[in-house]
Amino acid sequence: MLSTAAFSLGYDIKEEEVPFELSEHADLATRLAFQLTAQKKEKGGNPAQMAQEIAAAVSADSLKKADLIEKITVQGPYINIFASGKYLEKTVENVVSEKEKYGSGKKTEKILLEHTSANPNGPLHVGHIRNAILGDTLYRILKKAGYDVEAQYYVNDIGRQIAVLSWASSKYPLNRDIKPDYAIVDVYVKANEEIAKDETINEHIEALMKKVESGDKGTIESFTAAVNMAIAGITETLLLMNVKHDKFVRESQFIENGAVWNVIDRLEKTGKTKDADGALVVDLSDYGFEKTLVIRRSNKTSLYTTRDLAYHEWKAPQCDRMIDVFGADHKLISGQLRAALQLLGEKTPEVVIFEFVSLPEGSMSTRRGVFITADELLKQMMDKAYEEIEKRRPEESEGFKKEVAKMVGIGATRYDIIKVSSDKSTVFDWETALDFEKQGAPFIQYAHARAANILAKAEEDGSISAAGINAGFADYALLTEPQETAFIKRIALFEQKIEESAAGLKPHIFAIYARELADDFNQFYRYVPVLNVEDAELKKARLALTFSGKTAIANALSCLGIDAPKSM
RNA sequence: GGGCUCAUGGCUUAGCCUGGAUAUAGCGUCGGGCUUCUAACCCGAAUGCCGGGGGUUCGAAUCCUCCUGGGCCCGCCA
Predict the structure, then answer these.
(1) Which residue is nearest to nucleotide B78 (CA to C1')?
(2) Which residue, A81, A110, A197, A418, could crosslink A319 as a Cys pair with Cβ 3.0–4.6 Å?
(3) In the complex, which nucleotide's C1' lies nearest to the CA atom of residue A35?
(4) CA A76 – C1' B56 distance (Å)?
C-alpha cells in the first residue's frame, strides 16, 4: 500500500522492500521516507516532508480495504500505522480457535539439529547444559516455526577418551550403587591420573584403539558397555531438564560401515591431500585456513574430524538443512569441517556457537575432575524453589510442592541460560545461579498460574461450560481497555517472534518475548477485573482474553521447554 | 605471535546484521501499594562520555579502523 503511494510519487520501491519496525510510538512504523530521500539523486531531500507526501498519497480507498489498519499518521519523518479493532478481535479469535497450535509457522523444510553430544566419559556439567538447553530450545522454536526437525546426539563411542575409559573400567571396580555416569567418571579421572604418572599405559590405550578400528568384537563390547553407562546417566539428566533427542548416532558406525575410509578416499581424489610425516593431511588454504587438517594418523587410524565428516555426509541427503550447536572451542574445527565438506561438494552445516561457561578458578575439565555437574545445579535450583513454595503455600500437599518446585527449578535454570545471547561468555557462581531473577521463568509461570486460576473459578461459577472456550465464545469488540489492547497486540506478535528467532537461530529473542507477554498479562490482571464484572457479555469477553493470554503464555513456555503450572 | 569473539548505569542484560523519534529490561538502592480474580505481583524515583582514540555520514551504541581489557582457538585430543 505504501509502495503504491510512493510509486505514484515517482519512486521505485517494491512492497517487500518497505522497512517496517515495531515502535513505541505506533503499532508499526516505517522509515520509508529516509530511504526514499537517500534514493533521490539530488541531495537535500527532506524526509519529514516526504513522509507527509507519501501518507497523503495513500488513497482513502485502499485504506478502507485494509480493514486491519485503523489509521496512518506522520510524525516528523516517520510514518506510523495503527492497528484497528478488527485486528485485535481477529487475534483473540485466532488464539481461541487454534489453542495450542496458536503461533505456529508454515515452514516445511527438514532440519537435522545436532546438540549436546557431550563425550560419554562422565556426567553433564554446567558447561554442557548451555549446549543442551540452547539446542533443545532451538529445536522447539524451529518446530513451532513449522520445520520438520530431528534432534540428534552424536555419541563419541570410539576415540582415545573412550579407550582410556575402557581400560579404566577393566582396571578399577565400577560402583554400581551410584548414578552410572558418576561411576564412569570416577574411574576415568583415576585412569588419567595414572596415565600422567606412567606413560607406558599409553601403549595399551593405543592398542585398544587399533583393535576397535580393525573391528575386534571383544574390545568393541568393552567400549560400548562403558559408553552405555555414561549415556544412561546423561539421558536421565537431560530428561529432567525436558531436553529430548530423537536419535543417538554412534560415531563407531561410520568406522564399521567404511564411511570414514570412503571420505578419506574421496578427499584424496580432490588432489588437495598430502603426506605429512606419515599422516594424511588436507590443504584447506583455498578456504582461508593456513594450517592443514589431519584426516588420518600415521598409524592409519581415523580422527574425530574424519568421522565427523562421514557423519555429516550421512546426514546431508536426509535433510534440507543441518544445524550443529557447538561450544566456542569448536569454532576453528567446525570451519575446517565446513571447508572440507565444500571441497567434497557437500552441503555444509550451519553452526551455532555458544561461548564458554567457566568457573571462577578457570575452565572446567571432565578429565581432571574439575566441574560442577548439571545434576548438582538442578538439585540446588529445585531445593531453592521448594523453599519458596514452602513459604508461600505451606498448606498445600507435599506432592504439590515437589511438583511445583521441579517445574520452577528447572524452568528457572533453562530461562537463565537461554535469555542471554549465546555469544557472551559467562562465569558460573552459585550465588548468581541460585538468585531467581525476578522476571525469569517463575515470573512467566506465575502469570500462567494466575490466568489458570481465573479460568478455574469461572468454571466453578458456571461462566464457562464444560465445552470450554471455543471459537465465537464472546464479542471481542468489548475489549477496549488500554491494558487489554496492549496485551492483545503482544499476543499477536507470537508467530512473528517465532519466525525471527528461528530465522536467526537466536532463542533468546523468543525468551524475551515470553517475558514481555507475561508482563502485559500482569498489567491486564492488575487493572482489569474479570470475575467481578457485572456485565455478563463483558465478563465473557474478558474470560476469552484470559484464556487467550494463558494459551499464548503456555505455548511460549512450551517453546522454551518450561512447564506451565496451573497453580503455584 | 596469528585468528575468532565479547565490552552498554553498582551488577546482569536487550538493541548492533539492515545507522534515524527520549538507549531495553531485571537485580540492587530509595519511596509507595494486599477489605478487590494468588504480592513469585504492581506503581514511582535516582543511576549511562553505549571500553578508549580516529574515520564514514545530514545523523553512529549500531558501519570502518587502530588501541586496551576479558573469553575461546591455533595437537597425528575431542
Answers:
(1) A304
(2) A110
(3) B20
(4) 25
| Closest nucleotide over all strands to A530 (CA to C1') | B37
Strand B bases contacted by the protein (CB, 7 Å): 3-6, 12-15, 17-18, 20-22, 25-28, 36-43, 58-59, 70-78
Closest nucleotide C1' to the C-alpha of A118: B78
Of the residues A308, A328, A358, which one is the last residue of a structural domain?
Answer: A358
Amino acid A42: pLDDT: 43
What's A72's domain CATH number? 3.30.1360.70
Examine the domain organization and report whether A490 and A520 are in the same domain.
yes
pLDDT higher than threshold 70 for residue A358: yes
All three cell numbers of A369: 575432575
What nucleotide is nearest A457 when CA is compared to C1'? B37
Kindly state whether residues A21 and A150 are assigned to the same domain.
no
pLDDT at A144: 97
Domain CATH code at residue A189: 3.40.50.620
Instruction: Let me know if residue A417 belongs to a domain.
Output: yes
Residue A28, nucleotide of least CA–C1' distance: B21
Strands A148-155 and A247-250: parallel
Residue A475 covered by a domain: yes
For residues A217-241, average pLDDT: 93
Kind plus residue range of the DSSP H or E element containing A275 = strand A273-276
Name residue A20's beta-bridge partners: A30
Percentage of residues in chain A having pLDDT higher than 90: 67
* A272 found inside a domain: no
Instruction: Give the pLDDT of residue A558.
Output: 98
In whole numbers, what is the pLDDT of chain A averaged over residues?
Answer: 90
Of residues A401 and A30, the one with the higher pLDDT is A401
The verdict on A554 and A418 lying in the same domain is: yes
Considering all nucleic acid strands, name the nucleotide whose C1' atom is nearest to the C-alpha of residue A293. Answer: B76
State, as a whole number of angstroms, the distance between the CA of A401 and the C1' of B36.
27
pLDDT at residue A352 is higher than 80: yes
Residue–nucleotide distance: A288 CA to B72 C1' (Å): 19
Residue A548: closest CA among A124, A151, A433, A540:
A540
In three-state secondary structure terms, A177 is coil
Calculate the angstrom distance between C1' of B56 and CA of A38: 16
Name the closest residue (CA) to the C1' of nucleotide B18.
Answer: A19
* Element of type H or E holding A295: strand A293-296
List the A202 CA – B37 C1' distance (angstroms). 69
pLDDT (tens digit per residue) in A56-90: 777 666 666 667 888 888 887 788 888 888 999 99
Gap from A69 CA to B74 C1', Å: 56
Which H helix or E strand runs over A282? strand A279-282
Last residue of a domain, one of A304, A323, A358: A358
Q: What is residue A209's predicted lDDT score, i.e. its pLDDT?
A: 86
Q: Are A364 and A371 in contact (CB under 8 A)?
A: yes
Question: Looking at residue A61, what is its pLDDT?
Answer: 63
Query: Based on the domain organization, do A78 and A153 belong to the same domain?
Result: no
For residue A40, give its domain range.
2-83
Q: Check which CATH number belongs to the domain holding A413 and give it.
A: 1.10.730.10
Provide the domain count of chain A: 3
Position A444 pLDDT exceeds 50? yes
Report the distance from CA of residue A421 to the C1' of nucleotide B48 in Å, as an integer: 21
Predicted confidence at residue A43, as pLDDT, reads: 43
CA distance linking residue A295 with residue A303, whole number of Å: 6
Whether residue A531 sits in one domain with residue A411: yes
Q: State which residue has its Cα closest to the C1' atom of B59.
A: A34
**Are residues A70 and A18 part of one domain?**
yes
Q: Check whether A220 has a pLDDT greater than 90.
A: no
The total of other beta-carbon atoms located within 10 Å of residue A50's CB is 23
Whether residue A181 is predicted with pLDDT greater than 90 in this model: the reply is yes
The answer on A383 and A345 residing in a single domain is no
